[in-house]
Design a protein that fits this description.
Family (chain A): Belongs to the MoxR family.
Number of strands of chain A: 13
Largest sheet of chain A: 5 strands, parallel
Organism (chain A): Pedobacter rhizosphaerae
Helix content of chain B: 55-70%
Keywords (chain A): ATP-binding, Nucleotide-binding
Strand order of the largest sheet of chain A: 3-6-9-1-10
Number of helices of chain A: 15
Largest sheet of chain B: none
Structural class of chain B: mainly alpha
Protein name (chain A): MoxR-like ATPase
Strand content of chain B: under 5%
CATH class of the largest domain in chain A: Alpha Beta
InterPro entries (chain A): ATPase_AAA-3, CbbQ/NirQ/NorQ/GpvN, ChlI/MoxR_AAA_lid, P-loop_NTPase
Oligomer: heterodimer
Helix content of chain A: 40-55%
Strand content of chain A: 15-25%
Number of domains of chain A: 2
Order of helices and strands of chain A: HHEHEEHEEEHHEEEHEHHEHHEHHEHH
Distance between the termini of chain A: 21 Å
Largest interface: A-B, 22 and 26 residues
């Protein structure tokens, strides 16, 4: 009855290809894969949290493998220095001048593994890069190539040897994707695949699905999708409520509202629609907000989680219809 | 024995104490009387003959209030009345604190069920209070087909809620209602209607009279179908 106003066929085909490629290696984790793709299309940085061994790094590596772009990996360790990430000026005897040697941040897809094992000093090196897509060293500003995406993995804060990430940095991540344990059936499938040595071959078979230019085009398409004004108000209400909720010590910033809308557009496009619905907003609200809010001490002691509060907030606000 | 004798011998050798005489010149310091006099004139150092403090307006108000309360208590009739009011107040405060500490809902005191409470600060619309036929007529008169489709959808939600097929709550999305329908065939048809509504309402797809007629017919067929 309604012909599409925006051509999403290329995007949908690419999404299917990425899902298929990831599905060959990763068993289950459907929501994680959906959010990874949505984050990629919405031009956001992603933080994946989970206990060791739930395929966080593998998922991040696979999504990077699906794009033919410059891939860098930085293993965050307690002794890592900002210059190890950004780069440093090295004296050249030939020219008798200092020359800037680019660090691993100069790439398209940056996998920051175990991000919360480095202290705040090193974390702060990422602030400018993540938000402004540039770095400033010795008074010189270096622009980072588009697309620029940070895919970070971390263990839960309760784990040994981890630091809490600064709020300013957490706010720069579009989603915090909580990677859960597989179900029993999924675990059996993982073992079967491993036993039959299927995983290794499939890992090597994964080829790039999207080029840098295609990513740029898809992102531009998504940005132009339609959002009904009442839905903009709905997203703003959800975020605004986090600032007035008594269970929260810290609410979400306006960057969270923008993130909900951008990510909602990506989810809508993945569903083949060129407009956003309340379901899209609800789907992304939790991964957008959980890392941006802080519980009040008494609620934390009661055992509540940020996800519980976000769910309560969503339940409190009327769906525009 | 020898050791002890040796010890006594050693002690006897200790030199006698010498008294040292301090022959240094002692400088006698005198208090400056002018300075003492200056200090004694300062207000902070005058410890006696303090003039009585004049009461401020605020203090006088409190004195008056306490005096009034005191007199009221001395009166037999009003005194007992105030006692009961205060007792009641204390009981209310205790009940409030108990409710707060236990975390009970205040609704238990009014007898209202917690489930009946719609947890919204502001409910935009209640589908059970809308006169759909009247509103639909108005929308069609103004050629607002988009609004007309919205009213058709809300009317359908109301009917499904009345038939206990869905449980209507303002926080639920359209897809949540779709998944609530148990009958597979009905669910599929309602899913299609929902999609049409979403394209027209959230997507702001253009809808003319002919398209509306078609959509209207689909809604009518669904609403007239038996559960």
């Amino acid at each position: 009855m309604f012909s599409q106003r925006t051509d999403l066929s290329q995007l949908n085909a690419a999404v299917e290809q990425i899902k298929e490629a990831l599905g060959k290696v990763i068993v289950g984790q459907k929501d994680t894969i959906d959010l990874l793709i949505a984050g990629l299309l919405a031009d956001g940085h992603l933080l994946m949290e989970g206990v060791p061994g739930v395929a966080k790094t593998l998922s991040a590596k696979l999504i990077a493998k699906c794009i033919s772009a410059v891939f860098s990996r930085i293993q965050f360790t307690p002794d890592l220095m900002p210059s190890d990430v950004l780069g440093t000026a090295v004296f050249s005897p030939k020219t008798a001048e200092f020359q800037f040697r680019k660090g691993p941040i100069f790439g398209n897809i940056i996998l920051v593994d175990e991000i919360n094992r480095a202290p705040a000093k090193t974390q702060s090196a990422l602030f400018e890069a993540m938000e402004e897509r540039q770095i400033t060293v010795d008074g010189h500003t270096y622009h980072l190539e588009e697309p620029f995406m940070v895919l970070a993995t971390q263990n839960p804060i309760e784990q040994e040897g981890t630091y809490r990430l600064p709020e300013a940095q957490l706010d720069r991540f579009l989603f915090k994707i909580e990677v859960k344990y597989p179900t029993l059936e999924e675990e059996i499938e993982i073992l079967t695949n491993q036993h039959q040595q299927r995983t290794e071959n499939q890992l090597q078979e994964i080829a790039a699905v999207l080029s840098v230019e295609q990513i740029k085009t898809l992102r531009a398409t998504i940005k132009a999708l339609f959002v009904e004004p009442k839905l903009l108000a709905y997203a703003a209400q959800i975020v605004h409520e986090t600032r007035n909720n008594k269970s929260l010590y810290l609410g979400a910033s306006p960057r969270a509202s923008l993130a909900i809308i951008n990510a909602g557009k990506a989810i809508a496009a993945m569903a083949g629609r060129d407009f956003v619905t309340p379901d899209d907003i609800i789907k992304v609200a939790t991964p957008v907000l959980v890392h941006r809010i802080m519980l009040s001490p008494e609620k934390e002691m009661e055992g509540l989680t940020p996800s519980d509060i976000v769910a309560q907030i969503i339940k409190k606000i009327e769906v525009p219809r | 024995m020898t050791g002890l004798c040796f010890g006594q011998k050693e002690l006897s050798k200790k030199p006698a104490k010498v008294v040292k005489i301090d022959s240094g010149k002692v400088e006698i310091r005198k208090i400056d009387t002018a300075e003492v006099s200056a200090y004694s004139k300062q207000r902070d150092f005058i410890y006696d003959d303090v003039p009585p403090e004049s009461l401020s307006l605020w203090d006088r108000f409190w004195n008056w209030l306490w005096d009034l309360i005191g007199r009221a208590f001395r009166n037999k009739v009003s005194g007992s009345l105030i006692k009961y009011v205060l007792l009641g107040l204390v009981i209310v405060i205790v009940i409030f604190l108990v409710i707060k500490l236990v975390g009970l809902d205040y609704k238990v005191l009014t007898g209202q069920s917690k489930a009946l409470d719609i947890p919204f600060e502001e409910t935009l619309e209640n589908i059970h209070e809308i006169n759909f036929d009247e509103q639909l007529e108005l929308a069609l008169q103004s050629y607002n087909y988009r609004l007309a489709v919205r009213l058709l959808y809300l009317k359908t939600l109301k009917q499904l809620s009345d038939q206990k097929i869905i449980s209507w709550l303002p926080d639920k999305t359209n897809r949540a209602y779709v998944s609530e329908i148990q009958d597979v065939q009905k669910r599929e048809v309602f899913s299609d209607l929902t999609l049409q509504f979403e394209y027209i309402w959230y997507g702001e797809f253009f809808i003319d009279k002919n398209t509306f007629e078609s959509v209207h017919q689909s809604f009518q067929q669904f609403n007239s179908s038996k559960v």
